[in-house]
Write a structure and sequence with these properties.
Blueprint lengths: L1 H21 L3 E4 L3 E2 L5 E2 L9 E4 L4 E4 L3 E3 L2 E3 L6 E4 L6 E4 L3 E3 L4 E3 L10 E7 L3 E3 L3 E3 L1 E2 L7 E9 L3 E5 L7 E4 L2 E5 L4 E4 L3 E3 L14 E5 L1 E3 L5 E3 L7 E2 L7 E2 L1 E4 L8 E8 L2 E9 L9 E8 L8 E3 L2 E4 L3 E8 L7 E8 L1 E2 L12 E6 L5 E4 L15 E2 L9 E4 L5 E8 L24 E2 L10 E8 L3 E9 L4 E10 L2 E8 L6 E8 L4 E8 L2
Length: 516
């Protein structure tokens, strides 16, 4: 009976979903002009469930608030969507934004004076830019500045892909807020650049990266915050951080230290980096990438009183001068952090930090003149070694400094091996939860994350769209914690599938799409 009710609810949900798609209307402007007075084809006004296409040759100015589904700018040669020069606006795109070749999406210099002009864009889907201009910060601070602040929201993943070379008018973002729910992520399909901002403009128009909820997954790319103000990256936590690589502007005039809220798929590991030289101008950035895996290649040579480096994760530090002419930057302090899966034992003073300047071939243990006793009460915990007497120098785009946790020769408390079955996010989850699989759509493998609030008998099953059970992924008792499992659908056909997590106190169903 319970299964029949489940199948009935699935069929109803699919029916509603299909009819919602059928109810969508695609609108196009009939001429250039302002959004609020536009004559649309077909007649009427686009709503939150409707799509909008700005065709080649038309320029539409956003001068009012609205919500739509998908937004397409340009038909392949031109087409412009621009924010008003005089009216503050707030728009919501529930689906995707696609900017075709030749198309432009931009803020305009404002006509309201030194207070500046702020627009807001909330995006739930993907942003793909193949056009000529994507510019969310335009004008001079204190006079003609106009900005669009972007919030990445919703319960589905958002992939950001910016094609073409970054410039002040292409792929140029202002403030961005990460506010994803239900396990959704922000995924990079290219490097993402946030403008360096200005210290003279209104604070509301500063370039700020705000973490609320959700993880940025960079893959081979980098999320780059060119602003050099420490406080302009804020809110990061184990629930919202960068999985992969982050670039940060250090200082235009002197040395500086910055937090890099990075980590990997199993945990958040904030990293602090200190530079001793300036970047000489806005646009430079130091980059820190968290790399899961063994810092020892198998033939690495360890010196300076260390006999092991982490087999769990390590970090790569590099430098890029961007559009400014500074050829190098020097660094003298490297502060990684550790958590519950790093193989660090509570209450000892035998943990160290090691660096490598030759791609992991040699690891050098850093001095620890002030004893630091390990603790796992509130992970991740920063671990601070002595500063280098002679800073290491990186040339722009050439070479890297690698950093890893290490242990004192002859000690055994800190295994530096992964402690399986536990990570920072697995400590006492407050509720049961089934997250959206990632990637989705997928081919042929995808990951499913779930949380167990108390010891329970757990099942995780896959069904086809008709409710027929295809396979069982989990069927057994689980302790409290956060878990993930990989589902390989190599033997299944392209289509929509459902996955259901059940415990004695919780049941949840989500949809996944297999595309071969």
């Amino acid at each position: 009976m319970k299964l029949n009710l489940f199948l009935f609810s699935v069929i109803v949900a699919v029916f509603i979903f299909a009819n919602t798609l059928l109810a969508q209307t695609t609108y196009s402007p009939t001429r250039s002009g302002q959004w609020s007075t536009m004559v649309w084809n077909p007649s009427g006004t686009p709503s939150a469930s409707d799509n909008v296409v700005i065709p080649d040759g038309d320029t539409v100015t956003i001068n009012t608030n609205f919500a739509i589904n998908n937004l397409t700018i340009g038909g392949g040669t031109s087409g412009i969507l621009q924010f008003s020069k005089t009216d503050t606006t707030s728009i919501v795109v529930n689906g995707d934004i696609l900017i075709n070749a030749g198309g432009s999406f931009k803020a305009q210099t404002n006509l309201t004076g030194g207070s500046g002009l702020l627009h807001l864009l909330e995006l739930h889907g993907n942003l793909t830019h193949n056009g000529a201009i994507l510019d969310f910060r335009n004008g001079a601070a204190g006079s003609t500045l106009s900005c669009c602040n972007l919030t990445l929201a919703g319960s589905t993943n958002s992939t950001l892909t910016i094609n073409g070379v970054y410039s002040s008018t292409n792929g140029d973002f202002n403030s961005i807020t990460i506010n994803k729910t239900e396990g959704a992520k922000v995924i990079l399909g290219s490097n993402i650049y946030m403008n360096g901002g200005s210290s003279t403009g209104p604070a509301i128009l500063n370039t700020v990266l705000t973490f609320i909820s959700g993880i940025i997954e960079t893959g081979p790319y980098v999320w780059i915050c060119q602003n050099t103000t420490s406080a302009n990256v804020t809110g990061y936590s184990s629930a919202s951080y960068i999985n992969g690589a982050m670039g940060r502007g250090m200082s235009n005039t002197a040395g500086a230290n910055k937090d890099f809220p990075v980590g990997d798929s199993l945990g958040y590991r904030v990293f602090n980096l200190r530079s001793t030289t300036s970047g000489a101008g806005t646009g430079h950035y130091a980059e820190v990438r968290c790399i899961p895996g063994n810092a020892n290649t198998g033939t690495s040579i360890l010196t300076s009183d260390i006999d092991k480096v982490s087999s769990v994760r390590y970090y790569q530090v590099s430098f890029n001068h961007g559009p400014v002419s500074t050829p190098f930057m020097s660094f003298d302090r490297f502060i990684p952090s550790y958590g519950t899966d790093d193989g660090v034992a509570e209450g000892n003073t035998n943990l160290r930090v090691a660096i490598s300047t030759d791609s992991l071939a040699h690891w050098i243990g850093l001095n620890q003149s002030k004893p630091d006793t390990t603790t796992l009460l509130a992970p991740p915990v920063k671990f601070t070694p002595d500063s280098l007497a002679v800073p290491d120098t990186l040339r722009s785009g050439v070479g890297s400094i690698y950093v890893a946790l290490a242990r004192v020769t002859g000690t055994t408390e800190n295994s530096l091996d992964r402690i399986t079955g536990i990570n920072d996010k697995s400590v006492k989850p407050s509720s049961f939860e089934l997250s959206q699989n990632y990637p989705n759509p997928f081919n042929p493998s995808t990951k499913i994350n779930y949380s167990i609030a108390k010891k329970s008998f757990v099942t995780l099953k896959i069904y086809n769209i008709l409710g027929k059970e295809m396979t069982t992924l989990i069927n057994g008792e689980k302790d409290p914690g956060n878990y993930n499992i990989t589902f390989n659908a190599g033997k299944l056909a392209t289509g929509v599938y459902l996955y259901r997590l059940s415990t004695g106190d919780y049941s949840s169903v989500k949809k996944m799409i297999l595309m071969k």
